[in-house]
Amino acid sequence: MIPTLHPYADLARRYHENPRIELEVNEVSAVNADGKFWWEINNQAQAAFRQGNSYEALILAKKALAMKPDAIATLHNVSIILESMGRFKQAFGYAKKAYELEPDYDPVSAHYAEACLRMERWQEGWPLYVKNRGSMDWVRNWLPEWEGQDVCGKKIVAIEGGGYGDDLYFLRNLVLLRDQGVEVTLICQPSFCSLVEAQGMRAIANWDGNCDVDWRDYDYYTPLLSLGQKQGIAWNGPYVKGTLPWWKKLRRNRVGFCSRAGEAKSYDRKYRSLHNEQAGEILRALPKKYKWVNMIHQMHHDMLGESAVNGDWLDTANVMSTLDLMVTVDTGVAHLAGAMNVPCWVILPGAAAWQYPLWHEIHPFYPSMRIFRNESEGLDDAVQQVAEALEIL
Asked: 370 Cβ partners below 8 Å, 6+ apart?
């Protein structure tokens, strides 16, 4: 029995759960004319942002920054606020300065890492990303870590990290190892196991952080989230397939739709999910010759009916293989469609995840994916763009 799996170091895990965690301040040196300290104004900015008042938050944060220009907490907050508005170039400068002032503070370096990756600054981003999100040094007590050397004929056990979208994004790297003659095993969530096995690899179910594994069965281990640094990210063709026979995959003018993401488990107030009015605008735009398919896992939708995906990820892949198009917010099925090379339109908020590099209309690592990115807060503009594109489908 291995110890409980912790995909991130403790501070990085806390940052993942609460990316706006308050930084400690050891000295207070700047006081505003009305008697408030800079950190009080910074805290007011945080409160405004959490309540959805981003522009008020930005004004307050910049006021605090004017009082104390080297305040890491405020630099960090300004960067996050600007990202929520889709102002990534401006946000990057503040993230970079905060990192340069305090490179060893995990929340700051994790944020800067993702900012770098979003802008395709791979050389800067990958080492910091792995340090904060993909480091599992404790496994070295039993196995050496694979560092990128030739391992044809060897056995590697990979350990998942992050969410299902991360698993699907980096699964391409495990398939690349498989194709190089490596016997690959992935420790992953139970609902992901059958999909991994369908790709010709072995899976070990990780039940709520615990699973049985004999490290003596393997030559090396690797954190799944470290593979971008070790191998890079590229498109070498579809790397996920379902198990439906070919005649069941004939296209029948079916368009999948997923309007919900994982906010229930996320602190982020800049929601990825669509509210009913936004979903309705998209659903009404589809020409009548097409049929909507509900791809929201195990959830009835008033306008879509019952869900078509009620099983595990292999079940979802099988349904995905019957679609002509997938329209979705940023959630696991977006990455699944990309991995399967199914045509996909993804709806992104202003504060989009790093896995969707900036300044691309077609995803560079999912060539079947068209990106509809909101240029400011929220999703309204992106929703309108999708509706207009559907009308002429």
From this structure: 343, 344, 345, 346, 361, 362, 363
Give the global pTM.
Answer: 0.89
Residue whose tokens read 């139970």: 190
CATH 3.40.50 fits 137-231, yes or no: yes
Dihedral sign from CA coordinates of 47, 53, 59, 62: positive
As a whole number, mean pLDDT of residues 337-341 equals 98
Integer Cα distance of 290 and 323 in angstroms? 11
CA 209 to chain centre: 20
> Per-residue pLDDT for 308 more than 70?
yes
Q: Where are the beta strands (DSSP E) in the chain?
A: 155-159, 183-188, 202-205, 220-223, 254-258, 291-294, 325-329, 344-348, 369-373
| Distance (Å, whole) CA 36 – CA 214 | 58
- Strands 202-205 and 183-188 come out as parallel
- Structure-token match 């905060």, residue found: 98
For 305, phi and psi rounded to 5 degrees? Answer: 90, -155
Q: Which two tokens stand for residue 257?
A: 């739709």
Specify the CATH number of the domain 246-391: 3.40.50.2000
What is the dotted CATH code of the domain comprising 10-133? 1.25.40.10
Q: Rounded to whole angstroms, how far apart are CA atoms 181 and 151?
A: 8
Residues of the chain with CATH 3.40.50.2000: 246-391
Q: Which of 323, 322, 373 lies closest to 352 in space, CA to CA?
A: 373
